[in-house]
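Lecture notes, unit on protein representations.

Consider one protein chain, 170 amino acids long.
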Amino acid sequence: MNTDLKVLMLSASDSKGGAAKVAQYTAVGLQDRGVSVEMLVSDKQTDAEWVKQLQPPQKHRLLGKIEYRAGVNALNLATKRRYNHIFELASEDYDVVHLHDLPAGLNILDLAKILRHKNVVWTIHSMAPLTGNCVFSFGCDRWMKGCHDCPQFGTWPLIYYHRDASAWNW
């Protein structure tokens, strides 16, 4: 099957973790069917030519490490500074942008602006996009009203500040 369809996949990694493996399998399956697929990741583990690593400019890498140590990287406020070149996506001719596990530091509001004129598919692999941070709430519904003394603070994904849905007063 030949197609002119061009797909971009965005994931934290190309093979490390369950969501990354799903993204990789999906990409390979589409390629096997003649679809042009590129993948942007923050943690590139393979040597696949169609996978490109999102590299923050050198001057921001140290700041990123400091943010990580301080625990504020999970607030996802740094898209423009850290991944400025991702804004070029708006001008690319991708027919579909397929989101998976989003890279740390990628602000979802900035991403929405970038992709506002694109066809977007988001495969949600955990509860994090719905809860604001909890990958799996384990039956806890405090994220709906305000976690505050969350027992998951300091666990993966590393968080030290409240960023549940209630923190943003939806």
